[in-house]
UniProtKB/TrEMBL annotation:
GO terms for molecular function: DNA binding; DNA-binding transcription factor activity. This is Transcriptional regulator, ArsR family. It comes from Litoreibacter arenae DSM 19593. InterPro entries: ArsR-like_HTH, HTH_ArsR_DNA-bd_dom, Metal_resp_trans_reg, WH-like_DNA-bd_sf, WH_DNA-bd_sf. SUPFAM superfamilies: Winged helix' DNA-binding domain.
Length: 110
């Protein structure tokens, strides 16, 4: 991920509802969530949620697929990995052992 893509991702996450959506979709995992369920879970009107979902999709942090008459949203794991890799690109001045506690903390213990 380059700096401009990272800035787009940070910009998308810098709004409270979008950050809540992203975290909710991380929690939902591979199953994802329909747009209506996301709005209901966060108590956000449909037209407002649609705007937030569009911003997150354009940023590369989430993706969607049509599921019958609704649209299901998922975290884009490649986008999330890219952002984390960008942040840690020059981690610890060539001493990966110093970064290991951070990596352990963010690793999924599923």
């Amino acid at each position: 991920m380059d700096k401009n893509h990272a800035l787009d991702a940070f910009s998308a996450l810098s709004q409270a509802t979008r950050l809540d959506v992203f975290r909710l979709l991380v929690k939902a995992g591979e199953a994802g969530m329909p747009a209506g369920d996301i709005g209901d879970a966060l108590d956000v009107r449909q037209n407002t949620m649609s705007t937030h979902l569009s911003v997150l999709t354009r940023s590369g942090l989430i993706r969607n697929t049509r599921d019958g008459r609704s649209i299901r949203y998922f975290v884009d794991m490649d986008g999330m990995r890219g952002l984390l890799a960008f942040l840690m690109e020059d981690c610890c001045g060539g001493r990966p052992d110093l970064c290991q506690p951070v990596i352990d903390e963010i690793a999924c213990a599923c």
